[in-house]
Design goal:
Elements lengths: L7 H8 L7 E4 L1 H12 L6 E5 L6 H9 L3 E4 L2 H9 L7 E3 L6 H10 L3 E4 L2 H10 L4 E5 L7 E3 L9 H13 L3 E6 L4 E3 L4 H17 L7 E3 L15 H11 L8 E4 L3 H4 L3 E13 L2 E6 L17 E4 L6 E7 L8 E9 L7 E5 L19 E4 L1
Parallel strand pairs: 1-18, 2-3, 2-11, 3-4, 5-6, 6-8, 8-10, 10-11, 13-15
Antiparallel strand pairs: 1-12, 7-9, 12-13, 12-17, 14-17, 15-16
Helix pairs in contact: 7-8, 8-9
């Protein structure tokens, strides 16, 4: 199992936490530092935080106070931002399949730009939001991402051109291209490859009299889940180099989610049980696949640190507290051999896709969020 060592500051925050678990501790100083990195590329690149990564209100308020925009995919996410006073011109949506009520809510807020990747969605918008602006979602290579997103959404280059033409035919205004290189993309040049594909479509539609002005590069910016994670400046610099092939007036957007909040969070848990099975040692935590660590089912790896024990380490299988046999997060994790019930285990980076994925299965508690 490949892991990286969590930052000393984050583990120190976890070490000082003795309250009820599970608890997600957010290092607000670390969060603000990452926000500042993305903000520093404005106005050349505008960043919109993907709310789905962590929708905690205090986190949203911090991001709003630092000037970033937001990307939403549901009426609830939109309502949360509007209740905080976030202006509609700082809110976009990139969901290719939208509930009619969400379309209505976006329009009511003053936002009238949507993402499409099918004729059906275009026709739905033509009926529900006549004359709205649309971005076409292009299918791009997701190689290098831990959590690929290419199957459920997006159209091929040829299909994207046809979608743009159809949008015009039904009275919509196609204004650009969007794509997603896959979540947790560890290749800083993944966006460059996608941009080459986007340029082909960009030029093709122009021959039909359609002139784009917006490039939305989606998310994919990684958290420190493995040793190969590039820093965000390296990826953003590579993007800056690649977009010079597009017209100077092109609006360039990114949607960091995991990359913005992931490394700012550590999940503090407690051991609820220990067992030996077929000679292997198992440790059971009060958080698992169903109440915070669902992404482990898709290949996302975390670092596990004992906050109460040291000394000789051995291999452990780490599992959650539910009655389901699939509730196993990791195998061959090196932890102290002297682990005991009620010891604390810190799991990181956990700022993204933990609390938002938590369910009520088996009555398990959602991790509390504590911003420090």
């Amino acid at each position: 199992m490949t892991t990286v060592r969590a930052g000393d500051a984050l583990i120190q925050l976890a070490q000082g936490h003795f309250a009820d678990t599970p608890a997600l501790i957010i290092d607000t100083a670390s969060l603000k530092q990452t926000i500042a990195t993305f903000a520093s590329y404005a106005p050349a690149i505008t960043a919109y935080y993907a709310v789905k990564a962590n929708a905690e209100l205090e986190i949203l308020q911090i991001i709003a106070s630092q000037g970033l925009g937001f990307e939403v995919a549901s009426t609830a996410e939109l309502a949360a931002l509007l209740s905080m006073g976030v202006a509609s011109d700082r809110i976009i949506t990139s969901n290719p399949i939208k509930a009619p009520a969400f379309i209505d809510a976006m329009l009511e807020s003053g936002a009238n730009r949507f993402v499409v990747d099918s004729i059906d969605e275009i026709d739905k918008l033509a009926a529900r939001a006549p004359g709205c602006r649309v971005l076409l979602r292009l299918a791009v290579d997701n190689t290098g991402s831990t959590w690929p997103l290419h199957e459920k959404f997006a159209a091929t280059a040829t299909e994207t051109v046809q979608l743009a033409l159809h949008a015009v035919d039904v009275g919509l205004l196609p204004v650009g291209i969007t794509f997603h290189v896959g979540s947790q993309s560890t290749n800083p040049y993944a966006w460059n490859t996608a941009l080459r594909d986007a340029k082909f479509v960009w030029d093709d539609v122009q021959t039909h009299g359609i002139y784009f002005n917006t490039l939305n590069l989606g998310g994919g910016f990684p958290a420190a889940h493995d040793n190969l994670c590039p820093d965000h400046r390296r990826s953003l610099d590579a993007i800056m180099e690649a977009v010079v092939d597009f017209p100077d007036a092109t609006t360039v957007e990114v949607e960091p989610g995991r990359g913005l909040v992931g490394d700012a969070g550590v999940l503090v848990t407690r051991i609820v049980g220990l067992a030996t099975r077929s000679g292997a040692r198992w440790v059971y935590l009060d958080v698992g696949v169903y109440n915070g660590l669902m992404e482990t089912t898709g290949g996302i790896e975390y670092e596990y640190n004992s906050l109460d024990r040291g000394g000789h380490e051995q291999s452990w299988t780490v599992a959650g507290p539910s009655c389901d046999s699939t509730d196993i997060m990791a195998r061959d994790v090196q932890l102290p051999a002297t682990l005991a019930v009620d010891d604390r285990i810190a799991i990181s980076p956990a700022g993204a896709y933990t609390t938002v994925y938590a369910s009520a299965f088996n009555g398990l508690p959602h991790p509390r969020v504590i911003c420090l």
